[in-house]
């Protein structure tokens, strides 16, 4: 057996050498290439074939017959196998696609209709757009494309068809011949800073919803005592009497106005709550003998009368205005533009009003733009129904970036004030400034809290985006004080030294009283008070302060208004009288 085995191996070895020598022939090499087989495999196939043919000799004719009977059939079987393999692979891909579609349909059944109506394209687009070209945006309009925010976003027809574009609806001061344009030099040095300084201002977020009732009571008590000292000095009052002690003579008492129930304040439900030094009790007040009064819950007042009958009401205390040294006098007036959100119509998430405002900024080239929220309005229908395709933070970032990029050619200073209606920001009052890491190095951008007191070229601006006019207007009661309700409310704010003097606040204002005591007060009467409201726009001079309600940039589905001011700090006159730095002001339709 070993001899026979060695003989066979010797025969196969000689045959392999012989066949390898024939493989040098071009025809044999061509057969190997055409049939995609190696030389060793070719030898084994020939040995098997020649064995079945009783030891067929290796000749050219035999090779042709071998190719026809063996190699061609083998090649056809390989091709059929490849086709079957390709078919199976295609079938697996289609089954995966169907499974993915079924999974998407299952997920869509748990999502909103707007999101469920979107189907991801599983085919290659005819004109694919590279990620690089998609990231390059040529204008703010592309940044604020409505399709990227909501699948059902369409331009508002009522906003597009609005009338009176650019119409001036309110004027104040010497507007005749006024040139509403900024300084000629690009980015001319405008001094802009917070009155209290960055260290003593609300500059970052804080923990809230931790306050105790005792802390709230302490803040309100200190408010009564602080304003009481000012009223005592202003009206030359020797001392205040306790409210709870009966007296036959006329007495003077200090306290805070409140209501005897949870309802709205009226002439029969007024209570006066005294501080701890005056007994700390609540007593009813009879207003029948007062010829005129204007009261609201939370107001600190001084009353003079007998027992519970008020005969004289002292609630006003004019406090110090801002004074600036002559070194801060500006040679040229400063043009300030003021706008308040929302910046989209109520029936669409298109930012067309904001784009129109950017066009106004580029045209008029103001020195400073005061932009108050909301930028992403929580009261918008599509946001309330979650019909957006991006996060609120992403929409806000693109909104701000479009403003910054769209006004680069102007070089104006941009001041962003948050609102409690901004769904992407903290729902608390006082409200910390926005956080924009991408714009921290941009010297044109200033982020301030709500509320705040700002210095613009030496002119003091009081800023708040909270609609205190609307809130106080619903709670205030008055008699014999005239019909100008706006001036009464504004005077209350200025004399109470607070950006939000109403207590208790309305339900939509989440008040933190410890922070309110530090950051919600007016350190002085500002030169200009910006106080946007849902109520009608106006510009008024109230006890030496120019109060501006620029309105909102959109009013429902139609366009709204914005404001513009021309300010210049002048040297103090010799007679010591205060001169308003607001030269002119207007409210204009967008």
Automatic annotation (TrEMBL):
Q: Name one GO molecular function term.
A: DNA binding
Report the residue ranges that make up the DNA polymerase alpha subunit B N-terminal domain in this protein.
27-73
Domain named DNA polymerase alpha/delta/epsilon subunit B: which ranges? 336-540
Identify the stretch(es) annotated as Disordered.
Answer: 74-133
Where found? Nucleus
Family assignment? Belongs to the DNA polymerase alpha subunit B family.
Q: What is this protein called?
A: DNA polymerase alpha subunit B
Q: Which organism is it from?
A: Sparus aurata (Gilthead sea bream)
């Amino acid at each position: 057996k070993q001899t026979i085995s060695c003989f066979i191996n010797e025969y196969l070895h000689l045959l392999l050498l012989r066949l390898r020598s024939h493989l040098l022939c071009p025809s044999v090499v061509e057969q190997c290439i055409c049939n995609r087989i190696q030389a060793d495999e070719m030898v084994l196939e020939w040995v098997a074939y020649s064995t079945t043919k009783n030891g067929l000799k290796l000749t050219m004719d035999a090779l042709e017959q071998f190719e026809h009977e063996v190699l061609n059939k083998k090649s056809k079987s390989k091709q059929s196998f490849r086709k079957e393999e390709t078919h199976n692979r295609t079938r697996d891909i289609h089954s995966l696609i169907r499974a993915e579609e079924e999974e998407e349909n299952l997920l869509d059944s748990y999502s909103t209709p707007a999101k469920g109506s979107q189907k991801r394209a599983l085919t290659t687009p005819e004109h694919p757009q590279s990620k690089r070209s998609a990231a390059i945006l040529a204008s703010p309009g592309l940044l604020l494309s409505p399709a990227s925010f909501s699948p059902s976003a369409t331009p508002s027809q009522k906003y597009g068809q609005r009338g009176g574009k650019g119409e001036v609806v309110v004027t104040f001061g010497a507007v005749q011949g006024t040139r509403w344009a900024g300084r000629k030099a690009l980015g001319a040095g405008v001094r802009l800073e917070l009155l209290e300084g960055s260290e003593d201002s609300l500059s970052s977020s804080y923990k809230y919803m931790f306050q105790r009732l005792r802390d709230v009571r302490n803040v309100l008590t200190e408010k009564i005592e602080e304003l009481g000292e000012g009223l005592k000095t202003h009206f030359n009052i020797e001392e205040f009497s306790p409210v709870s002690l009966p007296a036959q003579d006329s007495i003077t008492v200090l306290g805070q106005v409140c209501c005897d129930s949870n309802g709205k304040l009226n002439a029969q439900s007024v209570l006066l709550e005294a501080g701890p030094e005056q007994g700390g009790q609540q007593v009813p007040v009879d207003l029948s003998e007062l010829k005129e009064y204007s009261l609201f819950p939370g107001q600190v007042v001084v009353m003079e009368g007998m027992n519970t009958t008020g005969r004289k009401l002292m609630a006003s205390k004019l406090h110090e205005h801002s004074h600036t040294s002559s070194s801060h006098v500006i040679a040229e007036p400063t043009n300030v533009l003021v706008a308040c959100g929302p910046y989209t119509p109520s029936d669409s998430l298109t930012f067309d009003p904001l784009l129109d405002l950017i066009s106004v900024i580029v045209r008029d080239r103001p020195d400073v733009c005061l932009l108050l929220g909301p930028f992403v309005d929580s009261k918008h229908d599509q946001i309330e129904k979650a019909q957006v395709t991006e996060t609120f933070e992403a929409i806000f970032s693109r909104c701000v970036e479009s403003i910054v990029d769209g006004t680069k050619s102007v070089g104006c200073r941009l001041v962003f004030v948050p609102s409690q209606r901004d769904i992407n920001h903290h729902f608390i009052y006082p409200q910390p400034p926005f956080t924009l890491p991408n714009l921290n190095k941009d010297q044109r951008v200033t982020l301030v809290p709500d509320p705040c007191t700002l210095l613009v070229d030496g002119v003091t601006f009081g800023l708040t985006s909270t609609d205190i006019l609307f809130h106080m207007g619903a709670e205030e009661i008055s008699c014999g004080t005239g019909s100008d309700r706006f001036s009464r409310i504004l005077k209350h704010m200025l004399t109470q030294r607070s950006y939000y003097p109403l207590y208790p606040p309305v339900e939509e204002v989440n008040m933190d009283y410890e922070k309110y005591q530090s950051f919600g007060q007016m350190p002085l009467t500002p030169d200009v008070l910006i106080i946007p409201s849902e109520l009608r726009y106006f510009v008024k001079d109230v006890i030496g302060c120019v109060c501006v309600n620029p309105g909102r940039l959109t009013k429902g589905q139609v366009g709204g208004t914005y404001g513009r001011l021309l300010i210049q700090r002048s040297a103090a006159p010799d007679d010591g009288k205060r001169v308003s730095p607001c030269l002119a002001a207007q409210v204009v339709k967008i």
